[in-house]
Design goal:
- By secondary structure, the chain is of the alpha/beta class.
- The chain has a single domain, classed as Spore Coat Polysaccharide Biosynthesis Protein SpsA, Chain A (Alpha-Beta Complex), CATH 3.90.550.10.
- The chain starts with 6 loop residues before the first strand and ends in an 11-residue tail after the last helix.
- Keywords: Transferase.
- InterPro entries: Glyco_trans_2-like (IPR001173), Glycosyltransferase_2 (IPR050256), Nucleotide-diphossugar_trans (IPR029044).
- This is Glycosyl transferase family 2.
């Protein structure tokens, strides 16, 4: 805990057996109270590895629900555990758990309700192995989103995020997509509810075992991101209110 606030780390997992132990061993249990792993019907022994490591809260989907569907289960379970601060961390070790302290204290001290770990702040993205086409797409999408959503984030596409309980209880994330665009819908909802987001610099790590979507899925994701940003824009000017922004 920090300031009597319970901290829960959620791990949306799919075929993460090779990297789960390394990720889990770096979680700072001096402040983290609970860990939730949701296995999205992996083809490997992710759930068994999680059990071996001593993770108590393991949920395995009977069918693959997608990245967004996995996160919904993660957050619902975290709220069930009465978490005050929830850290979403990928178990593929693409993001270092060593930032959990910094992210948690920002929320626990009442500075911000949302913290994201940005791979774009600083100059480490390409150095850390981010493919050039993904870097260019990230910059283009982020610029477009900032214009349409009137924000100034360095990126919207990181998978390393921290939320206060208030955010999870306010945002209707269960109405979002079950696919990768879930992340962008969530941030759009966060801004729609007038929460502010803090960013911290995160090292970039790309390697064989780290999860990454292919070019085709990336294009689908990019189009989905543009759609979310446009829906946010027309919602804010009062032309149309999409379901994810409704009360």
């Amino acid at each position: 805990m920090i300031n009597n606030q319970k901290i829960v780390v959620v791990l949306p997992a799919y075929n993460a057996s090779k990297t789960l132990e390394q990720t889990y061993n770096e979680i700072p249990f001096d402040i983290v109270d609970d860990v939730v792993l949701v296995d999205d019907n992996s083809l490997d022994n992710t759930s068994e590895e999680a059990s071996r490591l001593g993770i108590k809260n393991i949920i395995k989907h009977d069918e693959n629900k997608g990245y967004g569907g996995n996160q919904k289960t993660c957050y619902n379970k975290a709220l069930e555990l009465d978490a005050d601060i929830v850290i979403m961390l990928h178990p593929d070790y693409q993001y270092t758990p060593k930032l959990i302290h910094s992210m948690s204290y920002i929320i626990a001290n009442g500075l911000y309700d949302v913290v994201i770990a940005s791979r774009i702040l600083g100059k480490g993205a390409l150095k850390g192995g981010m493919p050039l086409y993904k870097y260019i797409a990230n910059r283009f999408l982020t610029l477009t989103q900032n214009i349409l959503m009137n924000q100034k984030l360095s990126e919207y596409h990181t998978g390393y995020r921290a939320f206060s309980k208030k955010v999870l209880q306010t945002v209707k994330y269960n109405d979002n997509s079950d696919d990768f665009v879930f992340d962008n819908e969530f941030l759009a909802q966060v801004f729609d509810k007038n929460f502010e987001i803090a960013e911290i610099t995160c090292p970039t790590k790309y390697f064989e075992e780290a999860s990454s979507i292919n070019l085709s899925r990336s294009i689908t994701y990019g189009l989905g991101v543009l759609r979310v940003s446009f829906l946010y824009f027309v919602n804010k000017i009062g032309l149309y209110k999409a379901k994810i922004f409704q009360q």
